[in-house]
TrEMBL record:
<dbReference type="InterPro" id="IPR011990">
    <property type="entry name" value="TPR-like_helical_dom_sf"/>
</dbReference>
<dbReference type="Pfam" id="PF08631">
    <property type="entry name" value="SPO22"/>
</dbReference>
<keyword id="KW-0732">Signal</keyword>
<protein>
    <recommendedName>
        <fullName>Protein ZIP4 homolog</fullName>
    </recommendedName>
</protein>
<dbReference type="InterPro" id="IPR013940">
    <property type="entry name" value="Spo22/ZIP4/TEX11"/>
</dbReference>
<feature type="signal peptide">
    <location>
        <begin position="1"/>
        <end position="25"/>
    </location>
</feature>
<keyword id="KW-0469">Meiosis</keyword>
<dbReference type="GO" id="GO:0051321">
    <property type="term" value="P:meiotic cell cycle"/>
</dbReference>
Length: 695
């Protein structure tokens, strides 16, 4: 009779034996996972094998029930991978396996929340695969998921499926009620309303919107629902109803029921949008009414640049409404001057009023005033504010075409002067031409591709005349700290790059020759080199490399901007697929990685960047692996691993996972595209597939 001890040892040995077998199965399955997108033939064979191994795993689970969750998770991970590759049939297979395995043993199953998650993904797979064929299955899966564990995503998914299948209103209404009863957030309800609208269930959408407003009546964020309601009404041409709701909000505003600042600015955007549309169709009184609504939310005497702009727009409406409105126009522009007296836009409106009033005497004076304020701006604004801020000031004004015409006209008016141009006039001319060029570039950004060339050519003309004016000015004295050279070069670079003009390279050379060129300028150049329709990756990289070297020379290196440069350099250089893998390209990327490693040491390097670098290096390794270049694959995966020690909080979670020997579990962290998902995938591959690389 064997002693108790021997029995025990026998038990342990057989347990270990099964564990090893299970482990082996898992490794085989991982082989499949790593190679599954290599090629169709391999894939088919591998998949058949994977299915066999999975069956063996299932049988073994009867002996090793504790591993139930582990095997279920592994199947789920395959389900996720194949779903992302859009292999829906495979994905539905693995997800069903995952769910069934989870059901095999109540005690060791991954738990009902996770089971629900598996089912939700399964329902999504059916929906995206072929919703007409599988609508029943999709609905069953999501209903089962909600039975396992009720959740917001489950409820929302159910509505999505019902809508996709064109279910009758009653069914959808039941789902919507279920949502309200389950205390989902206002935000989710509003997304659901938008979903209903986008699926053309307008009646149901408005009905639900009303229920939601009632349900959240005392919520502090009710305003966001009210504003969305107005937005939907306006988009569907229900202006009268929309106006009623707006007037309700205005009444509420004066009786202690103010909107949150976010909801209020959203409402202003809607109102201004409506107003400017009516202005464009020349319905000025209607336009004025929408601006008046917006005005209701400002306090008397408030100083706010938006109020200045609003008053200028109101003045423009009054002006168009002719005689009887000049007084109101003047009042409005007076308000605008109070809020923002130095704005050339305000001065422009004053000028327009004077011209329209036939105030011939006053108009030239105002034009002088305009030049004066333009010169003022030249000195203070241009010196302190970089080109981008200047551009965005332009973007704010709704019609760059009118702005451009105005500046061109002003420039031409200054040419008509009898006396020889003095310094002030030349400065004014320079400003006008710079503004006209900027407005043309802005117009180009907003126009359809066909008319872009025209705008760009015009911009280039303004730039060239401006260079002449600027040369004359510079000959008359020095202008320390004047950024005109930089601005002109930036504008010229943008225009030529978008015109696909090879001279753009010389412009970059001139930028690099500037004294004390700023990194910000180089970064802007880099962005412009790739802003559609421009496509100059080599120039972009050149600018970035110089920017990076300048950053590193600074006494206090700005790590986040350095990391952005390195990021862009790597992104631009990494091969986009098998056909682009060349040794010299990889060497270049490798050098950028070394740059990254050289700056990464201090603590405040952005962690998400480290993750990004790690993942891209890892994926390059995997790419090399799939091309059977094993030493290269090792080198890149090793590089990726060297970033792990720079991870902060994420590193800890990685390490605990390794200790618990549950590398797969991390996959549950996020249902969607979690930003750290990539790295965990990478780490999993590392911990499981490494043996593969070596064997
Ligand atoms: C202006 O718009 C309103 C509302 O859309 C409309 O009722 C009115 O007839 C329009 N007026 C003109 C002059 O087009
Ligand atoms: C807008 O408000 C002004 C007074 O601030 C008023 O004179 C004008 O009639 C209003 N216009 C419309 C269309 O509501």
């Amino acid at each position: 009779m064997p002693c108790i001890c021997c029995l025990y040892i026998l038990h342990v040995v057989s347990y270990l034996y099964f564990m090893l077998q299970l482990e082996e199965c898992a490794v085989h399955l991982w082989n499949w996972a790593v190679t599954k997108n290599v090629g169709n033939n391999i894939n088919k064979n591998q998949k058949a094998k994977a299915v066999v191994y999975m069956q063996r795993c299932r049988e073994m689970l009867l002996r090793l029930p504790k591993e139930t969750a582990y095997v279920s998770l592994m199947c789920y991970n395959f389900g996720v991978d194949t779903y992302q590759l859009k292999k829906f049939e495979d994905s539905s297979f693995w997800l069903s396996q995952s769910y069934d395995i989870g059901k095999m043993n109540e005690k060791y199953s991954p738990g009902s929340e996770i089971q629900a998650k598996i089912l939700r993904l399964l329902a999504t797979v059916y929906l995206e695969w072929d919703w007409q064929r599988f609508q029943e299955k999709a609905l069953n899966a999501v209903s089962l998921a909600n039975e396992e564990s009720i959740s917001v995503s489950g409820l929302y998914l159910k509505i999505r499926i019902l809508l996709r299948c064109g279910a009758p209103d009653d069914h959808i209404r039941a789902g919507l009620n279920e949502m309200l009863q389950s205390d989902v957030s206002l935000e989710v309800c509003l997304s659901t309303v938008k979903l209903l609208m986008s699926e053309d269930r307008e009646v149901l959408g408005f009905e639900y919107m009303k229920c939601v407003c009632l349900h959240f009546e005392s919520s502090p964020d009710l305003g966001s629902a009210l504003v969305l309601h107005i937005e939907l009404l306006l988009h569907r041409g229900k202006e009268l109803l929309g106006k009623q709701k707006i007037e309700d909000i205005i009444t509420g505003h004066y009786t202690g029921k103010q909107l949150t600042p976010q909801a209020l600015s959203r409402l202003h955007v809607l109102l201004w949008d409506k107003a400017s549309r009516h202005f464009e169709t020349k319905n000025y009184s209607e336009s004025l009414q929408w601006y008046n609504y917006s005005l209701s939310f400002f306090k008397a005497g408030q100083i706010d640049p938006n109020l200045a702009k609003l008053q200028r727009n109101r003045a423009s409406c009054f002006l168009q409404l002719k005689q009887e409105s000049y007084c109101s126009a003047k009042e409005a522009v007076k308000e605008a001057e109070r809020c923002d007296p130095d704005s050339i836009f305000t001065q422009f409106t004053v000028y327009k009023i004077a011209v329209q009033e036939n105030n011939v005497e006053r108009a030239p004076k105002i034009l002088q005033h305009y030049f004066w304020s333009a010169c003022c701006m030249d000195k203070c604004v241009f010196v302190c504010v970089p080109a981008t801020a200047w551009n965005s000031a332009l973007q704010c004004e709704s019609s760059p075409d009118r702005m451009r015409d105005f500046f061109v006209l002003s420039y031409q008016a200054s040419l008509a002067q009898l006396c020889p141009p003095d310094r002030t006039i030349l400065m004014g001319q320079k400003t006008c031409l710079l503004m006209a060029a900027a407005a043309s570039l802005e117009l180009c950004r907003r126009s359809p591709p066909l008319t872009q060339t025209e705008e760009l050519t015009q911009a280039l003309e303004h730039i060239q005349i401006c260079w002449e004016v600027w040369k004359t000015l510079k000959a008359s004295g020095s202008f320390p700290l004047d950024p005109t050279d930089t601005l002109l070069l930036l504008y010229e670079f943008e225009a030529r790059a978008k015109l696909n003009d090879p001279k753009v390279e010389t412009v970059l050379e001139s930028v690099l020759e500037l004294e004390n060129v700023e990194t910000k300028v180089l970064e802007t150049i880099a962005a412009l080199a790739m802003e559609s329709p421009a496509h100059f990756p080599l120039l972009c990289k050149k600018a970035l490399r110089v920017a990076l070297s300048l950053h590193k020379k600074q006494p206090q290196t700005d790590l986040s901007r350095c990391s952005k440069c390195v990021h862009s350099l790597i992104k631009l250089s990494l091969p986009n697929g098998v056909s682009e893998v060349e040794a010299h390209v990889l060497e270049e990327v490798w050098d950028y990685y070394e740059e990254a490693l050289s700056i990464i040491t201090p603590d405040d390097f952005p962690e998400m960047e480290t993750l990004w670098l790690l993942t891209r290096a890892w994926n390059t390794g995997i790419l090399m692996y799939s091309l059977a270049q094993y030493p290269e694959a090792e080198r890149w995966c090793g590089l990726a691993m060297s970033f792990i020690r720079h991870l902060g909080s994420l590193r800890e979670s990685y390490e605990t996972q390794v200790q618990r020997n549950e590398p797969f579990l991390s996959r549950w962290a996020g249902e969607g595209e979690g930003s750290n998902r990539g790295v965990f995938v990478a780490l999993e591959y590392y911990s499981k597939a490494r043996t593969l690389v070596l064997s």
